[in-house]
Amino acid sequence: MNNKTDILNELKELSPFLLHVKETEKPLSVPAHYFEDFSDTIIAEIKTESGILATLQKEKTVIPPAYFDTLADNIISKIKAEEALVENGTIKALPKQPNKVFQLFARVAFAASVVGAMFFIKHIQNDELPLNNCADGIACLTQEEIYNYMNANSHEFDVQQIQEVVKPVVDTIETKIDIESKDATRYIEENKLILEFDDSSTDIF
Amino acid sequence: MKLTDEEILLQFKDPASKEKAFRNLLHNYQERLYYHVRRYVHNHEDANDILQNTCIKVWNAIDNFRGDCALYTWLYRIAGNEAITFLNKNKKRNEVDIEQTSAQYRGASDGISADEMTLKLERAIDSLPDKQKQVFIMRYYDEMPYEKMAEISETSVGALKASYHHAVKKIEEILTA
């Protein structure tokens, strides 16, 4: 099998459609005598181009005589002249720019003083409000208010502390209560049903 | 009568026969190079420009040709690179051409003439990435063996086969859409 057959077989396997397109494709058209004249055209082109290049090469850049001999000296003398200007203070210092950090501090300080003044004024106004004259303090509150407050803020109270505070009062109350045993027996008899019910409802076993 | 590559290169070594050697080189390769670059640009004027640029480069660089590869391989490489450079320079113009052609032939895949199909094929080739385009042209139009293509493109045969297969599938997809 030659190379061309290989290529066509490969194409047939890959895409029979594209093989068909290849087989039906028309050859490319080229202007008459193009290839006969091409070498002359290109040689002429090259000669023109090399002619231009030769002209460009002849037109060398003109450099003043002894330019490179004096170049280093010229540069060094320029540098020295500039240094001398700096030493003599000829170069003016740039105007100072306002310090941005300082400006920031000033703004913060001003804002803080405004806020402080507002708090001060508010404090004075609060002092002028009518004071709570309730002589008994907590007694001015209703029981419901106290109960609600305790419920809502019970987590803030130390249980042991409360017990210690309440204990003397409870002890006092207990000592004041004087119940005779016959009254207690009668109370139990009268409320037997309720007490039994309470027991059964709390018995989980 | 055609001279061999060795004979031509020998002529190039003598400055007095450089022009003669160049004419012989063109005589041997101008047509193949022309048809190769014509497949990239699809019109004679652009192909002529590319071929002229290629030949001028060859003239300027032939003294440095060390013979590491065949003359034919070296020429193809220069021509292919010139064609890709030309296409990239004129990308915008080519995009406009593709849009016009697409609009002209949109939905006309059934019963279209051979000329129209050729035009569609050219536009499909234009849509390929540079490397795939080069591989497709060398294999489909120039009918080059993979080994030769590998020499020109400095790519492995395996990679070239994969690239060609991808290109064929892509073109078929475009043509049958």
What does this entry look like structurally?
The complex is a heterodimer of chains A (205) and B (177). Chain A has helices at 3-14, 16-24, 34-58, 67-87, 100-127, 143-153, 159-176, 181-190, 192-202. Chain A has 9 helices and no strands. In chain A, helix 1 packs across helix 2. With 205 residues, chain A is mainly alpha-helical. Chain B is globular, with a radius of gyration of 18 Å. Chain B contains 9 helices and no strands. The chains are: A mainly alpha (205), B mainly alpha (177).
Total helical elements of chain B: 9
Tell me, what's the shape of chain A? elongated
Could you estimate the helical fraction of the residues of chain B in percent? over 70%
CATH architecture of the largest domain in chain B: Orthogonal Bundle
Oligomer: heterodimer
The percent range for strand residues of chain B is under 5%
Mind telling me the CATH class of the largest domain in chain B?
A: Mainly Alpha
Largest sheet of chain B: none
Q: Radius of gyration of chain A, rounded?
A: 56 Å
pLDDT < 50 stretches of chain B: 101-109
Total number of helical segments of chain A?
9
* Overall SS class of chain A: mainly alpha
Kindly identify the CATH topology of the largest domain in chain B.
Answer: Rna Polymerase Sigma Factor, Chain: A
Secondary-structure element pattern of chain A, one letter each:
HHHHHHHHH
- Largest sheet data of chain A: none
Name the CATH superfamily classification of the largest domain in chain B: RNA polymerase sigma factor, region 2, helix turn helix motif
Percent range for helical residues of chain A?
A: over 70%
Give the terminus-to-terminus CA distance of chain B: 48 Å
Instruction: Quote the average pLDDT of chain A.
Output: 75
Chain pair with largest interface = A-B, 28 and 33 residues
Principal-axes shape call of chain B = globular
